[in-house]
Known about the structure:
This protein has 876 residues and is an alpha+beta fold. The protein has 6 domains: 2-130, 3-Layer(aba) Sandwich (Rossmann fold), CATH 3.40.50.140; 135-183 and 503-583, Topoisomerase I, domain 2 (Orthogonal Bundle); 191-254 and 387-455, Topoisomerase I, domain 3 (Distorted Sandwich), CATH 2.70.20; 261-384, Topoisomerase I, domain 4, CATH 1.10.290; 705-759, no CATH class; 771-829, no CATH class. The strands form 9 sheets. Strands 9-10-14-13-12-15 form a 6-stranded antiparallel beta barrel. Strands 2-1-7-8 form a 4-stranded parallel sheet, with helices on both faces. A 4-stranded antiparallel sheet has the order 21-22-23-24, covered by helices on one side. Strand 29 and strand 30 (785-791) form a beta hairpin. The longest helix has 28 residues, at 132-159. The radius of gyration is 35 Å and the shape is globular. The chain starts with a strand and ends with a helix.
Amino acid sequence: MNVVVVESPAKAKTINKYLGSDYVVLASYGHVRDLPSKDGSVRPDEDFAMSWDVDPKAAKRLNDIADAMKGADRLILATDPDREGEAISWHVLEVLQKKKAIKTAEVQRVVFNAITKSAVTEAMKNPRQIDMELVNAYLGRRALDYLVGFTLSPVLWRKLPGARSAGRVQSVALRLVVDREQEIEAFKTQEYWSVEADVSAGSDPFLARLVKLDGKSLKKFDLPNTDVANAARAAVAAGAFTVTAVEKKPARRSPAPPFTTSTLQQEAARKLGFSAQRTMQTAQKLYEGVDENGGLITYMRTDGVQAAPEAIAEARQVIAGRFGDAYVPEQPRLYKTKAKNAQEAHEAIRPTSLARLPSQLRLEGDQARLYELIWKRMIASQMESARIERTTVDLDTADGKTGLRAVGQVIQFDGYLAVYEEGRDDADDEDSRRLPAIAQGAAAKVIEARADQHFTEPPPRYSEASLVKKLEELGIGRPSTYASILGVLRDREYVRMDKNRFHPEDKGRLLSAFLKQFFLRYVEFDFTADLEEKLDKVSAGELEYKVLLREFWEDFRAAIASVGDLRVSQVLDALNEALGPAIFPERDDGGDPRVCPTCHTGKLSLKASKFGAFIGCSNYPECRYTRQLGATEGDDAQGGDRELGTDPVSGQPVWLKIGRFGPYVELTVDPEDKKAKPKRSSLPKGWSPESIDLEKALRLLSLPREVAMHPEDGEPILAGLGRYGPYVQHKGTYASLDGIDEVFEVGENRAVALLAEKRAGGGRGGRAAPAALKELGAHPTSGEQIRVLSGRYGPYVNMGKLNANVPKGADPAAVTLEEAVKLLADRAGKAPAKGKTARAKAPAAAKAKPASAKAKPAAKPKAAPKAKAAAKVAKG
């Protein structure tokens, strides 16, 4: 018997069909161990010893693998063919060895780049040992990330209130986003004009632009204003032009190589609107297989652009059959990656069989769209180049002082463009224009001339596609990490997405500024890319990973120590200076942007609170001016307070205020009522201070509102806005709503359904209830329902508030009612575990009571809850 371990159950199911009855294929469900999220999991003082914990969910799966190994001849580790896959195999083997489950079985490692019968069976014929160099590279990367996170984050919590954590690679990606935002803010717009004309030269009209004026070549900013531009337009309109040159140049456009992980993410973002995470999740399903045909694409985490010879040969056959021999180049196209630090360990991403046309597969939604994109890219990569004729037409006045130029192109043979054209962020429309037949020497007539105003634009904010591309160019991160890097930035609210572009949040700006001020080396692009290169050397066996860790830790520990001596005020002073231009922009009147607009004598600066940084006045508490970090003096909600109107019920004014924890609305209380407190409500996410009027404020202040009485018990159902967003609530059960608007609109039926769903374990806004594996029925004496549930630490029997673990190794689906009653009785009869009773022993000082203390009769002991439960169960 052979036991095969893969990552996912879908993969296991497909491979099991290929291998037959002599093989048992089991899934590890990804990583089975990780470093515990606590200090000391990596110990530099012990030569970087690492402690690993088995994931509770993985424990059962590892037990299943260990059980399957009883009597097995071989353990075949067939996890993914990359650094992470090698690490998973190593972890599984380590755990099985500790369980002494291997015994005499032979251990083999196999890899395949595609989940097809031929690829899998061929891999089984060529086993190898676990590649410890790849494992060491994984260990080095994991230790680096842990040391940065668990050493730097506590410094952040102490020195930069409100900051959550800083990751090694995520911080560099955040710096890119913040630096781009600073470029945009510092950008000075410049006006310029252009002149174009509709021209006819014995042909259909075509478009030409002014390129020469007063005998000089025209540069971009040579027409700076309306007057100059209108004069140039008049010169064009009045000119008599002749076609002085018609130049035709043949050109060839070659196809792009097949997809790597990053180029797939970029193109899926451009053409399909997918996020990096959505792309990878969809590609994973295509790789594992969605029907009886097995895997549809090769492994999707790769930076290689080469394809297997058999795939290239098949592509050429498909091209000839569908498009004709003219579309097949004489020689196959061979590609080599240009990405920095590329490992080229695997093929590019391609269909496992190009004969499977997208139209022939039973795919839907994201899978159909992504497969078609991958298929077209691979087919196009092996097609003939497109042949293009670029035409440039020059037109001049007789005196040579004014000149026009028209540019266009004609596609003479479409080649690969018949299938696919790579998306571009900077497409040039001028090159794609078609020109009519124009003869040199022909007289040209200006039909109409126009002067158009333009303004220079700042560099665009990063999209997911462009940020991934930039990280790849810099050699930062790896194919398997891009999606998680971007996801972490969003999850920690360091950035937000607006129109598919990254915008840094205030806490992201602060964190990036802090790291640049005090840990500049560790967010430098070259330093991070150099670490990636050293990790590649580890995987190639050229560098020992602990040597890398020692070099890194020595300098990093010194940097941490130097910052640890700083006071928070010193940190804020440094950030005030670094962020000055962004948070204190120049005023239109030339005044000091740091002067408090309320008291006019105090100076504004960064202040710290446990909720994060804000802008405050130096004259506090006499002057209570504050504003959020992102607000400016020109904002309506800035600093001072804005009266919105009067509450029609109480007759008291309603205000919009900006506190150190953000904007809020407040209903003033009657000044004669000394005990009354003002009612306040923070603005929900997505509501800007500028958008708040009296109506919106009163709606917020009305929360929580009563939706209805619950039909089962007559208790009120309330809708409100809490720390984690909008909700409905009934007798301590909270269920999340889809948005703030639903708080004011949700009715009885919707609220009751949400609460019922939450109580059943599928609700939103909290941890789901344990899944029920089996309903056993009512207890024979008490009548309470008994169920077998799936818990975090394995299956257990439940009755009310009493739980009992299912014995290790027992099948939870086979547990009977009688067995469950006995398990519950045994559990209820046990005394509390040692150390669990907080009041078991009185403090030593309390034992020695004064002799004069009056003795009191001993109180009658109450039955312990466990004892009560034991008696209750024992009655059966």
